[in-house]
Write a structure and sequence with these properties.
The structure is a homodimer of 411-residue chains.
Chain A lengths: L8 H19 L4 H8 L3 H13 L3 E6 L10 E5 L5 E7 L3 E7 L5 E8 L7 H22 L3 E8 L2 E3 L4 E5 L4 E4 L1 H8 L7 E5 H12 L6 E6 L3 E7 L2 E2 L31 H4 L1 H7 L10 H12 L3 H25 L3 E6 L1 H19 L9 E4 L6 H16 L1 H4 L2 H9 L3
Parallel strand pairs in A: 3-6, 6-10, 11-14, 14-15
Antiparallel strand pairs in A: 1-2, 3-4, 4-5, 7-8, 8-9, 11-12, 12-13
Chain lengths: 411, 411
């Protein structure tokens, strides 16, 4: 029988930094004594870890702890909003985006650059992305904050471990080594690049901003349609990380040909592009914000043909989502991306199909909610994924944390 | 910070019985010393637990341990095939079944009673089921083995904790308190009744009989179509236990009306019933074994219209399964129930649709396998679920185990 090796002092210190930072993140504002009680560490250990994290600008001291009852009130600790940030970067089908998020999860700066990426080469899109990312890195420098790493959201299938995009049908991209390409263009040193599907990052952004919503499907509607699946407060990625590709559910097997090569995929019948096409507002290969505004104006004015087109897309979406709920048994659907603004017109036809087609709907009706994160949730999720990684294992982002602890702190 | 209470001696003994039985189950045949090494318990504790389990006929001693190397060879321990059994019971749409499984997982006796249950009242079906179950209990008595509990497989949505069947569209049943109804008819005393969906039990039967197949979807084809989803070697039940209802995926939204009330569900296009109807072999409301044999004869003879009908059902199935794989990202599909015998004719059209429609298929083709458990996997899974529960916590099935340990054994 193998015997467990005792963890080295270095490993223990590294683990403790994550425990302490996690306890502060969860509480929002908390004393050293309370952190000690919540983590089971001694007060001396907590104090030395906290001092090192204050020095590294991961933790800040702010006034007095709010606490009832007797006893000395300790100084309040919070995550530092002025220390290390996460940078999210997104390749959309018709936009590029960056998002700077501080350690508390607040968005500090967002940049969006519109434009159809389908008519550009991979090199050209990555060139533009590099420029936008350099601008975001300059934003961070102007704010005086270091970047812990990059989260990169893409509209396709990725293998995160390999850093490779396998396919993005709406971009027409296949087999792009995004980790390699970006590292060749940007000086990331040894900072991590977290590659992920945009719908998965958007779902995580909803999870992290919601109170107590542990199980849902977040449907992102843009030119494509994707979904992120959250089960038990975690991302359900599938066996190889390819879950949630609902844009390619066959809804009308004899329907129009899709960018993926198959026929009758949901994307061809219910995407924002297909809605804009149906009402004559599609132009120039991109979801133009002016067109979306015009669509919303017509919907608010109850323009019959426009309401009818959105209603029809809602029915197709409802049929697909009923299938997803019949397979996964998830109680809540969140409409994200540009679907969020269309939610008042999409929710009824979706709910109608769910009520008819979900076998368990009589006992447990499925809720259809609009995103609370709003547009560009994916790039925010990508940035926050970096922040979450820092919170879990701060020492891997700030190696001096552990060496300082070794020199200064009681074991 | 709350302090963990020390576990009581009773709790520890109870836990140890499960540890020891689990180690014996996993090894197949093993010495007391090896059990001690695998569980981390002392040899004295293992010996006293084993003696109690031999007395309770859960464990048997069989000759010498097969082991190379030096040292005294211990007596070999195995699960006892003559002790407590699990009884599986199934309400099919057109049959009733029982299955007696011993502690090693071997089927000892199976009984099938055909007949359309759609034209009978709930009371009439439960009456017939009671008679069949009594016969199975008499079989166990004739074998001289006690029954630890019942597993009950049904073709519908169940809430196991409540013991209630919510709906079984193909039976036309809604809100049946199966736990209450069966306990009123059978003397089960305090033995557990594990209620579950038939496709889920069938998937578990495949998992438990397979070597190293941790992720798959098991599709059961009978009059209805259901699926059990296995992820990381466990059943993926969904949030409320209603996952895997693929029979009601909308494949042709304008297609025929389904028993669930919606239109164009997979069941209407690809079930064994719909195949038999398409080739003129359907009769009398049940899947007649003679009809299935006639179907297979025609397929073996390459009868064009029959091959074409099965091929078409395979394409519909493939479209639905491609959707399921796009959502779940699972690498293997097992065809179970009567689909298993049709696998040679179904696999190609299914694989064709998967290759076209699964976005990740280029990198990770999906395998389509026939069930290795064979027909009536669900009732076997239901019986084995009881056996697995006994193995995990034998003391809750044989309370004397713990009291005997308290009197006899070293702590």
């Amino acid at each position: 029988m193998p015997h467990a090796q005792p963890a080295g002092a270095h490993t223990v210190r590294r683990h403790n930094t994550g425990l302490v930072l996690g306890a502060i993140a969860e509480a929002g504002a908390v004393s050293r004594a309370t952190v000690a009680a919540h983590t089971g560490l001694t007060k001396a250990t907590v104090s030395s870890v906290v001092e090192a994290m204050i020095a590294a600008d991961l933790v800040a001291e702010t006034g007095q702890e709010q606490r009832s009852g007797r006893g000395r009130r300790g100084t309040e600790l919070t995550l530092s909003p002025h220390g290390m940030h996460g940078l999210g970067v997104e390749i959309g089908v018709d936009y590029l985006a960056t998002c700077l998020v501080d350690l508390t999860g607040e968005v500090r700066k967002r940049r969006i650059r519109g434009g159809d990426n389908r008519n550009r080469s991979v090199a050209s899109v990555l060139g533009r992305l590099t420029t936008l990312t350099r601008t975001a890195l300059a934003d961070a420098q102007a704010l005086g904050v270091p970047i812990g790493g990059l989260g990169l959201a893409v509209p396709g299938l990725v293998e995160p471990a390999a850093g490779v995009l396998r396919t993005a049908p709406n971009l027409g991209w296949r087999e792009v080594d995004l980790d390699g390409e970006l590292r060749a263009r940007l000086d990331l040193a040894d900072r991590p690049l977290l590659l992920g599907n945009e719908a998965n990052f958007a779902a995580l952004a909803e999870l992290w901003s919601a109170d107590d919503l542990p199980n849902f499907i977040c449907v992102s509607g843009e030119i494509g349609i994707g979904a992120g699946i959250i089960i038990d407060s975690g991302l359900f990625e599938g066996v190889r990380g390819f879950s949630g590709e609902i844009g390619h559910l066959a809804i009308d097997p004899n329907g129009p040909r899709c960018s993926c090569g198959a026929h009758g995929c949901l994307e061809q019948l219910a995407s924002v592009e297909s809605i804009l096409r149906a009402v004559g507002l599609w132009s120039a290969g991109a979801v133009d914000p002016t067109s979306v505004e015009a669509l919303l104006d017509r919907l608010r004015a109850a323009h019959p043909a426009t309401v009818q087109a959105v209603n029809e897309a809602g029915h197709w979406l409802g049929i697909a989502l009923a299938g997803v709920v019949n397979v996964l048994d998830v109680p809540t659907i969140i409409l994200g991306g540009r679907y969020a603004t269309l939610q008042p017109w999409l929710a009824d036809p979706i709910t109608e199909e769910l009520a008819t087609r979900v076998l368990s709907a009589t006992w447990h009706p499925v809720r259809v909610l609009a995103s609370t994160v709003g547009p560009y949730a994916a790039v925010r999720g990508a940035a926050t994924a970096v922040v979450r990684a820092i919170r879990t294992d701060p020492a891997s982002f700030v190696p001096t944390l552990v060496s300082q602890l070794a020199a200064d702190s009681p074991r």
